[in-house]
Specification:
six-stranded mixed β-sheet; globular; 254 residues; alpha/beta; three-stranded mixed β-sheet
Length: 254
């Protein structure tokens, strides 16, 4: 597949091809992705898929420059966000609420983001995406008419990508940089409450455990050693350059 351009627009067109012959993990339904668009799509899709599976709720992510600007699972939308996006907070659908909560984690960084959702895009979410400044979306499917709605955005340049939920990636991932080939095994540690068994002090409330699991999914697809603060099923902030850690307590996530 030819990509629109490489990391920077002045570079010649990039290309991509499946590692497993003929087996693509994603399909482009509309638009022409760039190198960064493709990285955003692949990483954000993995994040929401893992978060949704471990928390058993629709999940969404707002990606910018190959890292999550926000991530969340379905839940209540506050009055400020509801007013800003012109939605009824009491009747908003689960998938749309997940994306709004993800985008609201850092609205400035999410300006011109790449969206990812764990469930098929419905009419409500398609209508919202058509109104916000967003460059593309990846999902496991699309309700009838939603691709046509999204195809009108940005004069047909809005990216609509479909992920294959059944795709199993290779155990080893490789990247070539400046004449060197870097290879590593995928991080295949399954996210589950078993990872949180060793509680040093006190007990871990269910809500805190869920936030910690979401945070672990976020950090897995953040491009730097980081700390992640969460509350109520939404990423509040990620800070890079630190030892990887995640916190969901009331003191750290007020």
């Amino acid at each position: 597949m030819d990509l629109r351009y490489e990391i920077n627009p002045q570079q010649a067109a990039a290309t991509t091809a499946p590692v497993q012959l003929g087996r693509w993990p994603v399909r482009v339904l509309q638009g022409n992705p760039s190198y960064i668009n493709m990285l955003d799509a692949l990483n954000s899709w993995q994040l929401v898929l893992e978060a949704s599976r471990v928390l058993n709720r629709p999940a969404a992510a707002s990606f910018k420059h190959v890292s999550p600007a926000g991530a969340a699972v379905a839940g209540p939308v506050d009055d400020v966000t509801a007013k800003l996006y012109g939605i009824d907070r009491d009747s908003v659908g689960a998938l749309t609420s997940a994306y709004l909560r993800a985008r609201d984690a850092d609205p400035k960084s999410s300006y011109g983001d790449f969206a990812a959702v764990s469930h098929p895009v419905d009419t409500e979410l398609a209508e919202l995406l058509s109104r916000v400044v967003c460059d593309g979306v990846i999902a496991p499917g699309y309700a009838p008419g939603t691709v046509a709605t999204l195809s009108k955005k940005k004069n047909g340049r809005f990216l609509v990508m479909e992920a294959d939920q059944a795709f199993t990636p290779p155990q080893c991932e490789t990247r070539e940089v400046f004449g060197l080939r870097l290879s590593q095994r995928r991080d295949e540690v399954a996210l589950s409450t078993a990872l949180l068994d060793n509680v040093v002090c006190g007990t871990l409330p269910t809500a805190a455990a869920e936030d910690l699991l979401l945070g672990l999914a976020v950090l897995r697809y953040t491009q730097s050693n980081s700390v992640c603060y969460l509350r109520g099923g939404a990423r509040v902030v990620v800070r890079g350059g630190y030892r990887p850690a995640v916190c969901a307590c009331s003191r750290c996530a007020p």
